[in-house]
Specification:
Order of helices and strands: EHEEHEEHHEHEEHEHEHEHEHEH
CATH architecture of the largest domain: 3-Layer(aba) Sandwich
Number of helices: 11
Number of strands: 13
Distance between the termini: 38 Å
CATH topology of the largest domain: Rossmann fold
Oligomer: single chain
Shape: globular
CATH class of the largest domain: Alpha Beta
Structural class: alpha/beta
CATH superfamily of the largest domain: Glycogen Phosphorylase B
Strand order of the largest sheet: 3-2-1-4-5-6-7
Radius of gyration: 22 Å
Strand content: 5-15%
Largest sheet: 7 strands, parallel
Length: about 400
């Protein structure tokens, strides 16, 4: 599938690198979370060791962020200047310059026991990419935490069942620990930065915004066979369906898509995602909508084709730190993305998306503010290569 002309050569994005200083040991007395400015240098030995537990997890937006930034970082740093630590049996990434270290057996306590044990023994600082840090590592091992959002603190109403309350308690503990212990915090949007400042009092100068990006979608070949002949989903015709990717997390707002389908019976709505989406639809009294096609889990190749040929990609989220799926949809050629009218979505997508006022629009495609600019133009704002440069600057590399 050929890309629109405006999407070509975007990976050659060359913006100025923003550098900060976390290199080596600097003289003087500083607060626990501060590191004095000093000139970046190549360390004689690795200063940072990445928490590689995310490699054992299913890939969602948080894991994608870690995977892609580290892959680009590997192309930019001196050999052996960064390590990644992972448990035995975890998939081992192939890097040229990041050194892979295997430490301990995979177990639920690995990030809190085996990983910090390695840090202390090797004299490394942690680099934790996925909202979790070691709670009891020595002070000398304190490092950089990537804190994607504060959803568990900002929206406790999303986590009412026992499993949700337990998860919220654990993540709020982690939020407090990152606020208290991280030398520097990375987050994925200015919106998330202000939320961290608001809820946890972290000074803005401790927080660096490093965005998500979309170039990983270029590695995926669209599976156009899903539309050939009768196709895998005969009800879907290129250009004649709305597409969304759903789950049962409250912030994803799956019910809005169902209400939009009910209110637009002449349109087809394709919904990808596993779990009990149809059971949830039944509980909402919206199970028998003939214009809704439940796709189940789809492959990356299928998702790319579905994004490329939809009428619009729907993303009625209630809360996000960044919200990468619409960006991926645009990168795949979606002619429009329709997102919630929230500060985060406005920051990330600007005039390049259509906006849903969730306070006034419970599920009506006819009441959406249309995009004011070409969606594809937003892609120039985001590149994994630039994000990796910014992280390298924080690490003093």
């Amino acid at each position: 599938m050929s890309q629109p002309k405006k999407l070509q050569n975007l990976t050659n994005l060359q913006d100025r690198t923003v550098r900060s200083s976390l290199a080596g040991t600097c003289a003087g007395r500083v607060k626990p979370w501060q590191v004095e400015d000093c000139a970046p240098r190549t360390p004689a030995r690795p200063l940072y060791a990445v928490d590689g537990w995310f490699l054992t997890q299913r890939v969602s937006g948080i894991q994608r962020y870690a995977i892609e930034i580290l892959a680009e970082l590997d192309r930019q740093i001196p050999a052996g200047s960064v390590e990644i630590v992972l448990p035995e049996g975890a998939p081992q990434p192939v890097y040229d310059n990041i050194r892979v270290v295997v430490q301990g057996q995979a177990n639920p306590l690995w990030e809190q026991r085996d990983y910090p044990r390695y840090l202390a023994g090797a004299g490394r600082r942690w680099l934790c990419m996925c909202n979790v840090i070691p709670l009891h590592s020595p002070d000398a091992c304190r490092g950089i935490a990537v804190w994607h959002d504060v959803c568990y603190r900002a929206r406790p109403d999303f986590y009412r069942d026992p499993r949700g309350r337990a998860s919220a308690a654990w993540h709020r503990l982690q939020y407090r620990a990152m606020a208290a212990r991280a030398r520097r915090i990375v987050t994925v949007s200015e919106f998330s930065k202000t939320e961290i400042e608001r809820y946890y009092g972290v000074p803005g100068e401790r927080i660096t915004v490093i965005y998500n990006a979309w170039q990983h979608m270029q590695r995926v070949a669209a599976d156009e066979s899903i539309f050939a002949g009768a196709g895998k989903w005969p009800a879907l015709r290129p250009g004649q369906y709305y597409f969304s990717m759903a789950n049962l997390l409250k912030n994803k707002n799956f019910p809005w898509v169902l209400r939009a389908a009910k209110n637009t019976p002449e349109a087809v709505f394709a919904i990808a995602g596993g779990g009990s989406l149809q059971a949830e639809a039944r509980s909402l009294g919206l199970a028998e909508l003939p214009n809704v096609v439940y796709l189940g889990y789809v492959t990356d190749e299928e998702a790319k084709a579905l994004m490329a040929h939809c009428r619009a990609f729907l993303f009625p989220t209630l809360y996000e730190g960044f919200g990468i799926p619409p960006l991926e949809a645009i990168a795949c050629g979606a002619p429009a993305v329709l997102v919630s009218d929230t500060p985060c979505m406005r920051e990330i997508y600007g005039p390049h998306a259509g906006y849903i006022d969730l306070a006034a629009n419970p599920g009506n495609l006819r009441q959406i503010t249309p995009p004011a600019a070409d969606p594809a133009a937003v892609l120039t704002r985001y590149a994994w290569r630039e994000s990796a440069r910014r992280l390298a600057g924080l690490m003093g590399l």
